[in-house]
Amino acid sequence: MLTPRVEESFALLQEITATAGLSSRGAEPIRLAENDLWRLPGNIVVRIARAGQEYAAAREVAVARWLDEAGIPAVRPLPLEQPVHSGTRAATFWEELPPHRRGTEADIAPLLRRLHDLPPPPFAIGRLNPFVRIESRLAGARSLNNDDQQWLLRWLEDLRQEWEELPVGYPECVLHGDAWAGNCAVTPNGAVLMDFERTSQGPPEWDLTSIAVDYESFGAVSKEEYGRFCEAYGRDVMSWVGYPALRGIRELRKVTFAIQISDENPQALAQARYRIACVRGRHGSRPWGWSAVA
User: How far, in Å, CA of 112 to CA of 147, rounded?
Assistant: First the structure.
């Protein structure tokens, strides 16, 4: 029996596939979280963005096509006019990858380095906004008590100030924006990058901090795995004086993501509350051993 969440997403999928001239018959949900991912017969993956993310969806397709032209392995969008819209929701269509495994930190590192070394694309990608959606997640959260909400909002303002005063690091470049091992897949032909929803211009340290936080804060990456990542990329961002500020922003993003998911899935509420307690200093020092939410 389909859950209300799946039924709602499938109804939207039907509208979107019809608009694109495709059929939703035989569709299977892959993951319904920040974006809704569906698999269609014929090795097609549909990615339905949240409301208000039309520009990000269009940019994602443009970036993937640009990377293909630049010779950097990446997932490929279907050769049709995209994104496809239904109301306030935008959807994109992709070629499904062949059988593959999830990438490791060492797999994604060389791809990130190649991406960071590219000149800017011939189209606008915007500058990194590391705080996108954080405030709206906090303002709309139903599972937050007032004390936690006010504390997180104050922390957000402190981090905004730190971001404005961020020390100079390496030259700005094209960022992946959501760099972690799960956004790299290893196929029989090698590693490929995925998920360009947050691609933008900004400090390369932002991408590197994502992996560092998975190691230092989440505890999801071992010391050895993190070492291999730094070796493959050629730099350890944790030695940079601006790292603590970016770490804080990344941690706040992970906290508010868990809050957002817990509003939709009560099973994630315990993890959201645990993350809040950690950043408020109630569970000792890092790593905190956070669990994934979806």
Answer: 39
Q: Which H, E and C letters describe 50-117, residue by residue?
A: CCCCHHHHHHHHHHHHHHHHHCCCECCECCCCCCEEECCEEEEEEECCCCCEECCHHHHHHHHHHHHC
Instruction: Look up the domain containing 251 and give its range.
Output: 105-279
Query: What is the value of pTM for the model shown?
Result: 0.90
Q: Give how many domains the chain has, as a whole number.
A: 2
Residues 111-146 pLDDT 10s: 999 999 999 999 999 999 999 989 999 999 998 999
| Cis check: omega of the bond before 287, within 30 degrees of 0 | yes
Residue 125 and residue 71 share a domain: no
pLDDT tens digit string along 27-71? 999 998 878 999 999 999 999 998 888 999 999 999 999 999 999
- Among 149, 144, 176, 195, smallest CA distance to 33 is for 195
Whose tokens are 């032209």? That residue is 69
Tell me if 289 is assigned to some domain: no
Alpha carbon distance 101, 156 (integer Å):
36
